[in-house]
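dude i think i finally got it to work??
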Amino acid sequence: MGVLDGKVVLVTGGGNGIGRDCALIAAREGAKVVVNDLGGGLKGEDEGSAGPAEQVAQEIRAMGGEAVSNSDSVTSMRAVQGMVEQARDTFGGLHAVINPAGILRDVMFHKMSEDDWDRVIDVHMRGSFNVARATIELFREQNDGAYMFYTSTSGLFGNIGQANYGAAKMGIAGLSRIIAMEGARNNVRSNCIAPVAWTRMTQSVPIKDEAAAERRKVMAEKIRPDQPARFSVALVSDAAKHVTGQIFGVSGENIILYSQPRPIETCSKPEGEEWTVQTILSEAVPKMAPKFYDLNRAPPSAQPKQAQPA
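look at this
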């Protein structure tokens, strides 16, 4: 018995990395899986291939599971609607979407082309919209549905050279939250995860020296794609029906719950008084300044700690 027995799950980007492990683990947990992967390059520059998705589907079938492959792009609404129809025609329904499909076009913002921006936004932000919009009415009608979207610390904290990727990933966090709010009355859940894992995306970062190469070797062993994949599968199961609207992170065996933006300081004027340009600069800004966030990716206190056994 698995936690996804009787469920049908669509996994995008399922031919490589975290998506591949999501598809395999979902199948091991009893799900019937539609494995989607365009089969293109990391930068989205290739035409694509049906090979990666079909290979994963074959692995699932070889271990006794049920799976079909799909090599269309999440950037096309018509293509995503086709994925939903494929799930319903083949397996009789659809209950969850896990959406790690993505590309990278890393470049400093002052050198970023419109194409660099558009391609990344299209796959990540438009792709997330497409998979949600193509399934949300079905999920609401059947009073059962779960999304696991993929955000990133590049959006939550920021990361140099990834303005396109970070903007898309921060947008996904907002999309997921609102889908969760609107879907609550119909048992439609939505969460997102900021994974840290050794995939072809992280492998694309250039190695500068031997020390970096050694760190990369250690990372490959400690932060594997199956770790965030296991979490993603767990969260779309019925056992997690009470969990929605959250932002999680998984790094190795650390499972992280991220805060979400809330007011931390308010400066007010008494009734009848107004802020002026001068008093904003002399009073409000200095009062708020001690709570400003600096340009580091995350303060040391926010770094995940190793979980202790109960």
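Residues 304-310 have pLDDT under 50 and may be disordered.
im so relieved honestly
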